[in-house]
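ok so i was messing around last nite and threw this chain in just to see what happens. nothing serious, just curious
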Amino acid sequence: MSKDEVDVMTIGTHAYEATTHGVRVSVQPFYLEEESDPEEGQFFWAYQVQIENLGDETVQLKSRYWRITDSLGRTEEVHGDGVVGEQPMIDPGYVFEYTSGAPLTTASGFMGGSYEMHKNDGSAFEVEIPSFSLDSPYSSHTVN
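result:
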């Protein structure tokens, strides 16, 4: 498989992974029972992301794009600089890891998106964030 192709897979039932242009993104979502209030229609998830540079050049994560969809099909798009207040440089063979969260008003949904990365020469490319399920014990079925 060339670096330009995308490889998407699900590991087990709750970890998701995609590799694009030599950058592997792995996501592990977690339902946060203690932060949620199902009776009020408030459901919260955390997700841990690992971004691994499998290539031979340093890359910098400049911006993010998320597409968050609830179980009723309502979609929210989020654009922003970096992640968790950072625009990390990731050297070849290194991993950048962070944890963030997402609320929904339904008991399940899914999200995915992309990162804009830059090489040292200033060229930009997109890296896929694999779509992953946000499933709670209150959902009648899983989305993914």
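not much to say yet. Residues 71 and 138 are 12 Å apart (CA to CA).
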